[in-house]
Amino acid sequence: MKIGKYNQARVTDDLPQGFYLETEDGDRILLPGSSAPENTQAGDTLRVFIYMDSEDRPIATMKKPFAVADSFAVLKVKEVNQFGAFLDWGIDKDLMLPFKQQLGELKPGDLCVVYILEDKLSGRLIATEKIKSFFDRDTKLLKPGQKVELAAYEVTKEFADFLVDYRYTGRLYLTGNEDIYIGDILSGYIQNIRDDGKISVSLTPVGFRAVAENADIILDALERAGGFLPFNDDTPPEVIRKEFGISKKTFKKMIGTLFRQEKIRIAENGIRLL
Questions:
Q1: pLDDT band at 245, cuts 50/70/90?
Q2: Which of 81, 108, 131 marks a domain boundary?
Q3: Contact 95/87 with Cβ under 8 angstroms?
Q4: What is the pLDDT of residue 191?
């Protein structure tokens, strides 16, 4: 059986405490009755997630965890005690983040960006915030302009480092107008990929695609606001960034494009949808 991952298993016995399953490797494991699908019976084949319970016994569940072994995840701290932090990962047992695997003090409610792995000493699944050695450095599947999902794992005054599609690492250099915290999940774009595999990311599209997508952002905002928005050349850049997620330079370029397309009218106090 594969601990911390999904397994195909066949129901062999129906007992008062639940169902015994046989995995493809021939291992027997209990699926508690409270976790079993309705009308489960002997002979059924189920896709179950297997983990170790509080007594270090393997157990199956039909619940879907937020992440599996050998993968990255953004998880919330539920509890901190003398052993470490315990993270909610979507199943009955919380995932332990030992103190020695933490990068800073944690408290309940904090978000952690972690990698899930098997502890070599205990054989248990644990989480670690020391994730840098697990990144995929082979970036041949990525290309500039590609839309990706970002999860912030390190934030300084100068830059924010992100998981890119929960596989790679990318860096965004900050202008001072961003409001980014560890655990934030954002949409972003590949800006550049260096020969050494380092990735630069952007929160806004690049190239021709940026024109169309940002124009749609402005048009959608106008429609939601009833056709008028009080933004123009005098609007501070930080207000533009907060409202639309784009720079003021890009905003001015977009409204110029929309004006030439006769989709908006530019007034002294704002822009109006035509």
A1: low
A2: 131
A3: yes
A4: 86
The residue range of the domain holding 24 is 6-61
Q: Is residue 249 part of a domain?
A: yes
Give the Å distances, CA to CA, from 150 to 94, 202, 259: 24, 10, 33
d(CA 85, CA 95): 8
Q: Is residue 238 pLDDT above 50, yes or no?
A: yes
pLDDT above 70 as % of the chain: 96
CB atoms within 10 A of CB 135: 18
Residue 1 lies in a domain: no
Query: Taking the model in full, what pTM does it have?
Result: 0.73
CA-closest candidate to residue 84, choices 106, 58, 63 = 106
Q: Work out the burial of residue 9: count CB atoms within 10 Å of its CB; fewer than 13 is exposed, 13-18 middle, 19 or more buried.
A: buried
Straight-line distance from the first to the last Cα atom of the chain, in angstroms, rounded to the nearest whole number: 62
Contact 184, 160 (CB under 8 A): no
pLDDT for the residue numbered 262 = 87
Same domain, residue pair 157 and 178: yes
Q: How many CB atoms lie within 10 A of CB 82?
A: 5
Domain final residue pick, 108, 131, 154: 131
Residue 66 in any domain: the answer is no
What dihedral do alpha carbons 88, 91, 94, 96 form, nearest 10°? -90
- Domain shared by 253 and 233, yes or no: yes
Q: Which residues contact 29 (CB under 8 A, 6 or more apart)?
A: 1, 9, 20, 21, 22, 23, 48, 50, 58, 59, 60
